[in-house]
Structure formats: C-alpha cells, structure tokens
Design goal:
Blueprint: H1 12-29, H2 36-52, E1 63-67, E2 74-77, E3 81-85, H3 86-91, H4 95-110, H5 113-120, H6 143-150, H7 156-165, H8 174-180, H9 187-203, H10 208-211, H11 213-227, H12 231-240, H13 246-258, H14 269-278
Parallel strand pairs: 1-3
Antiparallel strand pairs: 2-3
C-alpha cells in the first residue's frame, strides 16, 4: 500500500476527473439510497476509518455512499468514491465486519490499483463505464437464482441463506464482469486491498477477529459452489478464477489478527439501528 516503484497511467488529478466523469453514470446504475439517516451513517463510518489512518487529502478526499441495489457488493471509483450496497450492509453481522469491507475498498483507492491496471492495459480499448472501478469486493446479483439452483424446493432455510449470501460468493465481481466487461483486479491487488482493509479498520478501533469475518462467508459459499457442478455455478467459478481463493483470504485475515492485540469494538447501537431501519 505504499505505492513504491508504482507505474500508473493516471495522475491523481486525472483520477479525480475520471471519477467525476463516471460517477454520474455509476449512480444511474446504482442510485444512492433515499434515506438520509442511512447515508449519514455510512459516511460517518467511512470518515472514521479515514481519520484514524490520516488518509484525508493524501491525495484523495474520500466519500461514501450507500446505494440501492439488489446485489451484495461494494466497489470504488478512483480518487476515493466508495459505494456500498444496501444488501451488503444487511448481510454484515456487525460493524467491524462492515468496516473491513469499507477498508478493503479504501485499500484499492489508496494503492491506486485502477491507475496501475490502466497502465498495464493501456493498449486495450474498452468503453466499459466500469473500467475505472477500484475493484468490486464481491460477486454479482444472483442470490435468489442461485438459491433455486442449489437448494431443494422444500428446504426453506437453505433458500433463505443462499438468497442472502449467494451474491457474495463470486469474489471476482461475477455478474458485474459479465454485464460491463471491466477488468478484474489481480490476485496480488485483492490480497493487498484485504491487508489494507484489515489494518485501517483495526486502526479505527475495530476488533481484529471480526474485521475479517466477511471472508469466512465467501469461503462457505465457495465451498458450496464446488459441491454443485453445473453450468450455472460454473460461471461463478470462472469469474472467481482471477481472484485469490477465499481460503487464502480467510487465512491471511487470521494471520494478521494473530499479530495484534485481541481487543476492539465489534459493533454499535447505530449499526443495529440501521439494520433494523433498512430491514
């Protein structure tokens, strides 16, 4: 995350212009949730992580938006525009877990992964509006469809669980890639963003064990996919091929947690209130 010896196709100023250009297009696809209370919450949570790590204006001014979408996801435009979907917030079991997700997206921005990727792919011509995304943490939107493919019709608990977590399994941004054909981040970038997400969240006072719990959900879903060999789930497996297997992400989080004091905040009354409000 220190960006040493980095080769990038864009300056920070160009990244800002890119975010300004693509931001309105992004918000047409993923409109901000019309609930000011919830927007204030996600902004204050993101700002807390930024302040704790002294990231503001160095060189980006971060901003955080809760978006109204059906899929479980989080993603970032260059220069600090970070988006979290409503279903992702509802899937998080506590605020530390949500902070880890937001920290991961901050990691992509801080490391300038989009600028790096554009440097590497500068000879590729694409008009995808999501080319500039700082990396979707999660997969696409087919939670309910996945539930029907995996679960028996009468297994209500399975249907409920997979519908909720199904979209989380495609760690490469499965349906986003299919829909917009943007370039996924490398395994190295994703692992780096995970490390930065862990460190920034812990620095903001969150419990190291719970910050990484989200990756255990990804691993559970990945294992479920591996048990179900069919054309539908194969599309998600293919989408995940450019990202680190979830077991690597889980193990990395556990290793990082073992290196710091086992203490910190797990959740908050505000988080619980937001979940009840949005549910």
């Amino acid at each position: 995350g220190d960006n040493s010896a980095q080769q990038a196709a864009l300056t920070p100023q160009e990244e800002r212009r890119m975010a300004d250009e693509y931001g309105p297009q992004m918000e047409k696809e993923y409109p901000p949730l019309r609930d000011q209370y919830s927007q204030t919450y996600i902004k204050e949570l993101g700002d807390k992580i930024v302040r704790a790590n002294n990231l503001g204006g160095k060189p980006y001014d971060y901003r955080f938006t809760l978006v109204d979408a059906k899929m479980v996801n989080a993603f970032a435009l260059p220069a600090g525009a970070i988006y979290v979907t409503k279903p992702l917030l509802l899937m998080a079991e506590n605020e530390a877990e949500l902070a880890g997700v937001i920290g991961h997206e901050i990691g992509h921005v801080k490391s300038r992964h989009t600028a790096e990727r554009m440097y590497k792919e500068k000879n590729e011509k694409t008009k995808s509006i999501l080319l500039g995304l700082g990396g979707a943490l999660l997969g696409g939107a087919a939670g309910i469809g996945l539930a029907k493919a995996i679960c028996k019709k009468e297994d209500k608990e399975c249907l409920k669980r997979i519908a909720l977590y199904g979209a989380a399994a495609g760690a490469a941004g499965g349906l986003l890639i299919q829909k917009f054909a943007f370039m996924a981040h490398s395994r190295e970038d994703e692992m780096e963003a995970d490390r930065i997400g862990f460190r920034t969240s812990v620095a903001a006072g969150y419990h190291p064990t719970y910050v990484g719990k989200f990756y255990e959900k990804l691993l559970a879903m990945e294992q479920q996919y591996q048990k179900k060999q069919d054309k539908f789930t194969a599309t998600f497996t293919d989408a995940m091929s450019t990202h680190p297997p979830s077991i690597q992400r889980v193990n990395q989080m556990k290793e990082l947690a073992s290196q710091v004091r086992d203490e910190g905040d797990i959740s908050s009354a505000d988080f619980n209130k937001i979940k009840q409000r949005l549910s």
